[in-house]
From TrEMBL:
<dbReference type="Pfam" id="PF01497">
    <property type="entry name" value="Peripla_BP_2"/>
</dbReference>
<protein>
    <submittedName>
        <fullName>Iron complex transport system substrate-binding protein</fullName>
    </submittedName>
</protein>
<feature type="domain" description="Fe/B12 periplasmic-binding">
    <location>
        <begin position="61"/>
        <end position="336"/>
    </location>
</feature>
<comment type="similarity">
    <text>Belongs to the bacterial solute-binding protein 8 family.</text>
</comment>
<dbReference type="InterPro" id="IPR050902">
    <property type="entry name" value="ABC_Transporter_SBP"/>
</dbReference>
<dbReference type="InterPro" id="IPR002491">
    <property type="entry name" value="ABC_transptr_periplasmic_BD"/>
</dbReference>
Length: 337
């Protein structure tokens, strides 16, 4: 099947925001190995995206539907439980866990795997960043089809359809707690939560007394400028100590977390800083060139506060959310760190 290499922004963000890791890497979270997993043989039921997910015994053929989800399972010491890693070409695994996945079969490259390819590895647990990966009309296995094949499906909490506009960075801690229970690695999950909560606490302490800068988050591609004003993207800026120019209570973001804007409207806001996501070096360069040439008198441009983040770190269910919080905060308030 022919797949476009540069899907539209709306498709990319609603789906999995497929991208190459750019500037922000993982938090340096520890990797757990040789985990003694507790398998009682009893069924575990977790509420997820408005439905009950029941797992009969500890999964031993799990599939991470995106590198972010594969990474989390590797960090919990579950490498030997993985039957496949999907969308593996859109984002490199961090160096400290990449070797653990060398023998895990890759299913699908830049897009979610086809129904046939996913079912071929006979998964018993499928962990996805969003519900898009289960769109039957796209040729993917649906949640129902996977259930019929004996696989439990878990979607990152922030990627549930009803959370897309209200998701928070800390949703990932809910996912870790649930993974800990499902795989019997509660202690490892608690350690990973504590490690990443400490990063957020450090940022909160560092920015507690700063004068908040007004920050606009935008996305530019193909001549179209969009503002980001809701969802996890908004929460990332909030936790970084920013005074968001675009907010969920604005009408433009009442139905979707992004809205097309005119250059004139952005110029009128005169933000102190601009955060923009890019999916590779060329995209970062073109966005930066557009912003500097279009808004030479904007405070964000004059003060050299154009802050790039990886698109992969801005979608739900990834430790990259926490990396992005710290990266943005350090660029906004370098004297505070």
């Amino acid at each position: 099947m022919s797949v476009p290499t540069r899907p539209s922004f709306r498709a990319r963000t609603v789906a999995t925001l497929s991208a190459t890791a750019l500037l922000v890497t993982g938090c340096g979270s520890g990797v757990t190995s040789d985990v003694e997993q507790t398998d009682t043989g009893e069924a575990v039921t977790i509420e997820n995206c408005g439905r009950d997910v029941t797992v009969d015994g500890t999964p031993d053929a799990a599939v991470g539907m995106h590198p972010a989800q594969t990474e989390l399972m590797l960090r919990l010491g579950l490498a030997d439980r993985l039957a496949g890693q999907a969308q593996a070409t859109v984002q490199a695994l961090p160096d400290d866990v990449a070797a653990l996945a060398e023998d895990v079969p890759v299913i699908g490259e830049a897009m979610p795997p086809s129904r046939e390819d996913l079912l071929a590895v006979e998964p018993d647990f499928v962990y996805s960043p969003t519900t898009y990966e289960f769109s039957a009309d796209q040729g993917f296995a649906s949640i129902e089809q996977l259930g019929d094949a004996g696989a439990a499906v878990y979607v990152a909490s922030g990627g549930c359809e009803d959370r897309r506009m209200t998701g928070e960075v800390t949703d990932i801690f809910t996912d870790l707690e649930n993974l800990g229970e499902i795989f019997g690695v509660q202690e490892e999950a608690s350690d990973l939560i504590a490690e990443n909560q400490a990063v957020l606490d450090e940022v909160a302490d560092a920015t507690a007394d700063v004068e908040p800068l007004r920050v606009a988050q935008v996305y530019y591609e193909g001549g179209t400028l969009q503002a980001i004003g809701a969802g996890i993207e908004y929460d990332i800026l909030r936790l970084a100590g920013a005074d968001n120019v675009y907010t969920p209570d604005q009408e433009a973001f009442s139905g979707f977390f992004a809205a097309t804007i005119t250059p004139e409207s952005l110029a009128a806001e005169a933000p102190d800083a601009i955060v923009f996501a890019a999916f590779d070096d060329d995209h970062e360069a073109s966005t930066r060139e557009y912003l500097t040439s279009t808004f030479p008198d904007m405070p964000a441009v004059r003060q050299d506060r154009l802050i790039t983040v990886s698109t992969s770190d801005m979608f739900p269910g990834t430790l990259g959310n926490i990396s992005a919080v710290r990266h943005i905060a350090e660029r906004l308030y370098p004297d505070a760190f």
